[in-house]
UniProtKB/TrEMBL annotation:
PANTHER family: ATP SYNTHASE SUBUNIT B', CHLOROPLASTIC (PTHR33445:SF2). It is found in: Cell membrane; Endomembrane system. F-type ATPases have 2 components, F(1) - the catalytic core - and F(0) - the membrane proton channel. F(1) has five subunits: alpha(3), beta(3), gamma(1), delta(1), epsilon(1). F(0) has three main subunits: a(1), b(2) and c(10-14). The alpha and beta chains form an alternating ring which encloses part of the gamma chain. F(1) is attached to F(0) by a central stalk formed by the gamma and epsilon chains, while a peripheral stalk is formed by the delta and b chains. Residues 136-157 are annotated as: Disordered. InterPro entries: ATP_synth_b/b'su_bac/chlpt, ATP_synthase_B_chain. HAMAP family: ATP_synth_b_bprime. This is ATP synthase subunit b. CDD domains: ATP-synt_Fo_b (cd06503). The chain crosses the membrane at residues 6-27. It comes from [Clostridium] aminophilum. One of its GO terms (cellular component) is endomembrane system.
């Protein structure tokens, strides 16, 4: 038959006490430390996910702002083009008005010069006719008078 020795019984009791002590003072604190570390790691991952989501939101906001900036730039360029076109048309219209004024003044000067030339020519013709009439009255021969008139006309040219 089996005989149970007290040493075995003490060994079993010692093992149970050792198991309980290890469980109480070693395994439990280690498990708590490991759970705490696992919680810290989970929190780190959650914070990283939150930071990633915030970064993506910020990135999307930046894209929208860049889109708005591009749109504003296009609008500013279009407005500048419109303003430049208006300024170009205004300058062109002013230049055309100035050219028309200069042409009109030139026409007026040319007309005045032509009128002056016409008056001068009329005056010269009147003088020649008077001279011819005076010579006719002085001269007796028509052919001599005609020759004198032609000579005088040729000399005045």
């Amino acid at each position: 038959m089996l005989r149970i020795d007290y040493n075995i019984l003490f060994t079993i009791v010692n093992l149970l006490i050792l198991f309980w002590a290890l469980r109480r003072f070693l395994f439990k604190p280690v498990r708590e430390i490991m759970e705490k570390r696992a919680d810290d790691i989970r929190n780190s991952f959650e914070e990283a996910d939150q930071d990633r989501r915030e970064a993506e939101e910020y990135k999307e906001q930046c894209r929208k702002q860049l889109g708005n900036i591009d749109e504003a730039k296009k609008q500013a360029e279009e407005e500048a083009r419109r303003d430049a076109a208006k300024e170009y048309n205004r300058i062109l219209a002013d230049a055309r008005k100035e050219a028309a004024r200069i042409i009109q003044e030139s026409k007026e000067r040319a007309a005045a010069a032509a009128d002056e030339e016409r008056r001068q020519a009329e005056s010269d013709i009147v003088k020649m006719i008077k001279s011819a009439a005076a010579k006719i009255a002085e001269s007796e021969d028509d052919s001599k008078m005609y020759d004198d008139f032609l000579r005088e006309v040729n000399q005045e040219k």
